[in-house]
Design goal:
Largest sheet of chain A: 7 strands, mixed, barrel
Helix content of chain B: 10-25%
CATH class of the largest domain in chain B: Mainly Beta
Order of helices and strands of chain A: EEHEEEEEEEEEEHEEEEEEEHEH
Strand content of chain A: 15-25%
Distance between the termini of chain A: 31 Å
Structural class of chain B: alpha+beta
Shape of chain B: elongated
CATH superfamily of the largest domain in chain B: Cyclophilin-like
Order of helices and strands of chain B: EEHEEHEHHEEEEEEEE
Oligomer: heterodimer
Largest interface: A-B, 45 and 49 residues
CATH architecture of the largest domain in chain B: Beta Barrel
Number of domains of chain A: 2
Strand order of the largest sheet of chain A: 12-19-16-17-14-13-20
CATH topology of the largest domain in chain B: Cyclophilin
Shape of chain A: globular
Helix content of chain A: 10-25%
Chain lengths: 323, 234
């Protein structure tokens, strides 16, 4: 059991999301920065898809009711402590029953993932433990709050040397807070409908992430974009990464909790491989967009997945003492 | 009725593991039926390991399984497009399973506390309230798509006289079960939501139950719906 002392700014239960219900209007949700969530899980001996806590900007204060392995991956949290000891990120850390975890703020980026061995073991709802904060759907319908008690799955035994080993993952392939972040985009259905200036601005301007960005979508401010003429379109299914252009001219990049269908013009699509970096853009972060060919985007994603899969295997072997 | 065979379908890559099939840009029952027929046929092609089919008025999102990261690159959009084109080449209304969809009868208490806009709809249509109810209960509607919120079904087939613009000031809270009209569309709010549609009644029928993993939503895309006026309503 994890007891929530303070919930942090917005801390929610997330796994890899809900699949197979989109035709009923039920979206995927799930960890916004999926590779970081998978790595945190792998580092405590969980399946990569297990349920973790997704932390946003300001982390929670928690108390663990049993001895546990924890791992924190994602945006850097330099104030993170367990019982007043610094809590190193990107590695398994042994925490004793009764210890308090005080995670503090993020020095850069927007989201981090706390995995605990056994995973957070609430009963899944429609195949997932994720909270869809926007649809208020999930085993927990909202962010965690003070006093919540989160059940844990059976403890995982890791190799006895794990605690004393001096290693942690290299975060650089998985987290990058540099500014401006450059996101690779594919053309969308209505890219050619942008007026000339807007079409140029799309890849030449520097946008700023808006304060009302969330897990539904990231708003890109500072450079309004316009279509040559208004487009009337029927509502159709969307996916994360789609860049919608509402009439006001401020593009919105859809994220993991986007409504299943939408009717705004689509001026581009952030490549899947860059969605984790989009998830780390906090309000004020500067963003640039650059075109990528679909084949190149596909290869980049494949390479990212291959690297992640290999790393997950390497970590698992290390934790069982095989390497 | 136009044949599906002549219908041009365009294919646009969405995510790395999804294509959006477009059947035109018309809000039309025949086009929408073609979407559901295509979905049924793709669903039946179990060898393709399709993970998600999301129909809308005139489009269908097809998302396939991205195999775990091994060393062999998974097939790209062009391969999937070729597979789907072949599969849908002779799409035929009569032969599709969706030719016999489920039909639901939904009891509605027209007017009342929830259906506060019924008279407004009647005024806009220049009809009596009874005539509005008669015309709303007459058609067999087609569930064109589900979106906006879990279980929110957009129904095609609303009598033209009842087409009513959305409210200028949307309500911040529309109760679950509210029966509503928005433009050319009608539907039922499956849970408490904000909404700008005109509310004409209320049903006790539960449309969304997230705890029911087999069937969380009563209505599915392609289903048919009839509204029945409850005795003593309005």
């Amino acid at each position: 059991m994890i007891k929530v002392i303070k919930p942090g700014l917005l801390t929610s239960l997330q796994d890899m999301g809900r699949e197979g219900y989109a035709h009923l209007g039920i979206g995927a949700a799930g960890a916004a920065d999926a590779p970081c969530a998978r790595l945190a899980n792998t580092l405590v001996g969980n399946r990569p898809e297990a349920c973790v806590l997704e932390l946003s900007l300001q982390g929670p204060q928690l108390q663990l009711q049993r001895d546990a392995w924890v791992a924190l991956c994602g945006a850097p949290m330099p104030q993170a402590r367990h019982d007043k000891q610094p809590l190193p990120m990107w590695r398994p850390v042994r925490v004793r029953a009764g210890a308090s975890l005080d995670l503090g703020g993020m020095a850069a980026g927007c989201r981090a993932y706390l995995a605990v061995d056994g995973g957070i073991d609430v009963p899944p709802l429609l195949g997932s433990r994720s909270t869809d904060l926007n649809a208020r759907l999930g085993p927990l319908e909202q962010a965690i709050k003070a006093g919540d008690e989160l059940p844990l799955g059976p403890p995982v035994e890791l190799h006895p040397d794990t605690e004393s080993l001096e290693w942690s993952l290299d975060p650089s392939p998985w987290f990058d807070a540099s500014q401006p972040v450059v996101l690779r985009v594919l053309a969308g259905s209505h890219t050619t409908m942008l007026d000339d200036a807007s079409r140029r601005a799309l890849t030449e301007a520097t946008f700023q992430v808006g304060t009302d960005s969330n897990r539904v979508g990231v708003r890109l401010l500072d450079v309004p974009l316009m279509l040559r003429e208004p487009v009337e379109m029927l509502s159709e299914a969307s996916v994360p990464g789609v860049i919608q252009l509402p009439p006001g001219g401020e593009p919105i990049v859809l994220m993991t909790e986007h409504p299943v269908t939408g009717g705004y013009p689509r001026i581009g699509k952030v490549a899947d491989v860059d969605l984790p970096r989009l998830a780390q853009c906090r309000p004020g972060h500067r963003v640039r967009l650059t075109w990528i060919h679909p084949d190149a985007a596909f290869s980049a994603l494949h390479e990212q997945r291959r690297m992640l899969g290999k790393l997950e295997g390497d970590i698992a072997r290390r934790l069982t003492g095989e390497a | 009725m136009e044949s599906y065979r002549t219908m041009e379908i365009s294919y646009e890559p969405m995510s790395a593991s999804a294509l959006l099939l477009r059947f035109g840009q018309r809000m039309d029952a025949t086009v929408n039926a073609a979407v559901h027929a295509a979905a049924a046929r793709i669903r039946a092609a179990s060898h393709l390991a399709i993970r998600e089919l999301v129909p809308a008025y005139a489009s269908l999102l097809v998302r396939w399984h991205m195999p775990a990261a091994g060393f062999q690159a998974p097939p790209r959009h062009a391969w999937w497009e070729a597979q789907l084109r072949e599969l849908l080449r002779d799409l035929d209304r009569q032969a599709e399973p969706s030719a016999t969809p489920r039909t639901h009868r939904i009891q509605v208490n027209y007017g009342g506390e929830v259906g506060a806009d019924l008279e407004q709809v009647a005024r806009h249509a220049n009809l009596s309230v009874d005539e509005v109810i008669a015309r709303h209960t007459a058609p067999e509607y087609q569930v064109a798509m589900i979106g906006f919120a879990p279980g929110f079904a957009y129904l095609l087939g609303l009598d033209e006289a009842l087409h009513t613009p959305r409210r200028e000031a949307p309500r911040t809270r529309v109760p679950a079960g509210a029966v509503a009209i928005g433009g050319a569309q009608t539907g039922v709010y499956p849970s408490e939501l904000p909404g700008g549609w005109q509310l004409i009644g209320h049903t006790d029928t539960r449309l969304f139950d997230p705890a029911d993993s087999e069937r969380p939503c009563l209505l599915a895309p392609g289903d048919r719906v009839r509204f029945v006026a409850k005795e003593g309503g309005a």
